[in-house]
Each structure stands twice: as C-alpha cells, then as structure tokens.
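Title: [Solved] diphthine methyl ester synthase 3D structure

Original question kept below for reference.
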Amino acid sequence: MLYFIGLGLGDAKYITVKGLEIVRQCSRVYLEDYTSILWYPFSVVGAYFGVLNAKKKKNQFNLPRATTHSDLVLRALNAGIQYHVVHNASIMNAVGCCGLQVRIKLQSNVVILRIFVVSIVFWTDTWRPESFYDKIKKNRDMGPHTLCLLDIKVKEQSMKNLMRGRNIYEPPRYMTFAQAAEQLLEILQNQRDRGEELAMTQDTVCVGLAQIRAEVQTIHSGTLQELMSCDLGGPLHSMIISGHLHSLEVDMLKLFSGPEGLKTLKMTDSSTYVS
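Solution (posted by the thread starter after getting help):
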C-alpha cells in the first residue's frame, strides 16, 4: 500500500491523527517538499512522527507536501500497488480565513463554488504567457473570486549548466504578490493597447495572503495598486482577485484593509457588490 498523507500548513503537529497513525506503521517515509516550503527541519519530522527506527514496520509510505501527485498514483496502479489518500488542510480551503466565501448556497438549495483557482507563472525574457488573465476575466464575468497560486522555482538549472550536465541549481525563487501584480498590470496595459475590454483594473479589490498558518499568517485587503506596496512578509504568497462581493464579505475584508478602507466598493443591489 502506498499512502499519500497531507502535512497541513503548519508545523509537524498539523498532521492529522489518522495520518500520524499510518506514518508510524510504515517501513519507508518519503518527504516531498518541492511544491511548497517545509517550515521545520526534517529531523523534527522523524522525531515527532516516530519514524527514525521504522525499518521493522511493514508498509511503504509516501508523504507528499502538496498537490494530488497524479503521476505517482498512476505509476503505482500500473505497478499493481494500491494507494490511499489521507487529506489535510491546504491553501485551497484555508483561504476562507480572509473572509471570502469558498462556496455559497442559493435559494434553490444549489451550492456553488465562489473561489476558482489559477496559477501565475514567472515570466522570462522570451516567455510571457497571458493565459491566466483569460481565466481571471472569465471568473470575474461570472462572479466568482479567483485564487491565484504564485509560482515557485526550486531546483532549477540554468540553461548553461543544463547543457553541460552540471548538477548546479539556481537559488530558490518564490513569486511575491508584487511580482504577480506587476505582470497583471502589464497585461492590462497590453489589453488597453489592443482596445480590448478590461477584466479588472489597478483599483480592483484584491487580497494578499502570506504564510497562511495559524501562528504567523499575514492577510491584507485593498486595491491591486495598494497591495503592490504592502509588505506581506516571507513566502509563500497568494493573491485573490475579487469577483462579485457579498455584503458579509465586504465587512470581513474591512478587517484586513488599510485606514482608508475599501472605498472602491459600490453597492449595486441588496447582496452584491462590485469593484
């Protein structure tokens, strides 16, 4: 059996009770930290999880940090190995801490998602994709908010080292809110130059989130332009671009806004706000 066990967003104690029970029964533990940041030394994992002397146990275990790891699942099944997932908190549901609704129940008792997800990648001199903007535009047209997961570059090789076969890696890079905002504003200018209708502006209400963990997390709300100069602290950063805002969401966002408040919001009806 191959287990995929989420570690959660905090320290080693954020693993679930179920996950911890399984870890302590496993013969091998693989810790994957490529897709996120491990906030504590690996020695802490071994000591707390009780796996330092786990060779006597029977099962095999894989401990990813984030994502569904579909490739590993498919490889396991092709090899005749069964798998089991033990879930935990992730940024996908923890974003509710900023006050925006992850889902909403309509009068017809239909539950719809209120936050859709896109990824914003680092641009290079020769590669400047704008496809994530198209998804943001579609979301804002429909009403949901957009959670933007910002790029991570870990264990990346320069083209020179890659071509020479040298295992020399570039320093890790974690996209900040400001970097993502700068790319978005450039796309908006490109849209203006082409005479296209804009999905958002520099005055669109956004939320900046950093290190979303109970002890140290940072949340700021305001316009895109305002948040570009806001210090969110260390990585990892995320960005939420608002869609239609419910009055309760507006009240919650004011808890995280600057002294000027969210003055860009205007009421259009009894329950829906737009920037």
